[in-house]
Amino acid sequence: MKRDYPAHQKNRVFLTDFNKDSILRERIAKGNMYHESNEKSGTELMVFKDKDGLPVTYAASTREKNKYTTIDDLSVLWHEILSPLTVIKGYTGTLLELSDSITEEQKKQYLRGIELASNRMLHLLENLRDISHLESSDTWITHSVYFNDVLRRVVPEMQSQTNKHVIKINPVERLPLVRLEPEKIEQVLTNLLTNAIKYSPQGGEITVDTRLVRNEEELSEFSKDPPVISFPSLVVNITDDGIGVPEDDLEKIFQRFYRVDNQIIKSTPGAGLGLYICQMIVEGHGGRIWARNRLQGGSVFSFSLPLEQRTARTYKDYHK
Questions:
Q1: Residue 119 placed within a domain
Q2: Looking at the domain assignment, is residue 1 inside a domain?
């Protein structure tokens, strides 16, 4: 449901509303949008459809911006857990109450909706589990591997999940061995490629470039506006043709639960944990992760992995 809000409502705090009643569930099932507001309490309840066609129910504060400036972790977590639960409860309630009056195709649609919402919750819980493990791990078991071998495991799997994008690994000379925890670095690549796919909804080309950089000059030639990194390092650039990131948000997107205030991003399920996990893993390897926009559109996400790691590191070692 598209609505124009006054300027003071742009930065609203979103809190998922629990399931309403059978009438609301029936309206959702039929594809009708629902809206009610309470000026006295300063809240607004709305139901709209996300990009997958699933109903999303939430209550939005309509109070003035200066009364709500931040969203604490608990509120965001509450939203991300209750939102899919609301969808699941709404669909199951509809199936139980209206099973005799809806078609088999509608039943399949509702079951698919339940599956998508369940997968969304599972993904969130997996991310929370990963964060807990990363923050508490005392040591990581690293191996000397060829990075190209890691790419060959991840990229074909990601390519199989989209027919609107072409993911290319630009050819490079044989790279030296680098010590890393393969599964964790595969998770970083998967998260970054998943974002590149999600936030370039029109499709396009996604490229993965990797280079060994030995000094500042080589780094500047390969990556614009990089942070301070160790040398020698392996640097990976993932470039897409998507919507890009607002300049003011480039340094914030790696924060826990942070999501850019953009209509496309807001309509895409997510808790703002993926990039935070990427940062934890990369920093746990002694590297850095950063992002920039391209002049021709899209964005570039980069991370570095130092070749020389004398001792095993974890995320905790860099945040004591």
A1: yes
A2: no
Query: What is the reported pLDDT for 51?
Result: 53
209 and 92 in a common domain = no
Residue 241 neighbours by CB distance under 10 Å: 20
- Kindly report the number of other CB atoms within 10 A of residue 199's CB atom: 20
Beta bridge partners of 167: 206
The rounded distance, in Å, linking the Cα atoms of 237 and 195 is: 14
- Of 112, 134, 156, the position where a domain reaches its end is 134
Q: Hey, how many other C-beta atoms are within 10 angstroms of the C-beta on 311?
A: 8
Cα–Cα distance list, 30 to 25, 96, 142 (Å) = 9, 15, 53
Q: Domain range for residue 244?
A: 140-318
Give the model confidence (pLDDT) of 57-73 as tens digits: 444 443 333 333 344 56
Q: What is the dihedral of CA 312, 126, 280, 192, to 10 degrees?
A: 110
For residue 196, which of 238, 226, 235, 155 has the smallest C-alpha distance?
Answer: 238
* Cis preceding linkage at 176, omega within 30: no
Give residue 59's pLDDT: 43
Strand partners, 291: 301
Domain count, the chain: 2
- The predicted pLDDT at position 279 comes to 95
CA–CA dist 165, 192 (Å, integer): 14
DSSP class of residue 9 equals G
Please compute the mean of the pLDDT values over residues 287-306 and round it to a whole number.
94
Whether residues 176 and 247 fall in one domain: yes
Question: DSSP class of residue 280?
Answer: H
232 CB neighbour count, 10 Å cutoff: 17
- The answer for residues whose C-beta is within 8 angstroms of residue 240's C-beta and 6 or more apart is 196, 199, 200, 204, 205, 206, 298, 299, 300
Residue 2 counted as domain residue: no
Please give the model's pTM, rounded to 2 decimal places: 0.67
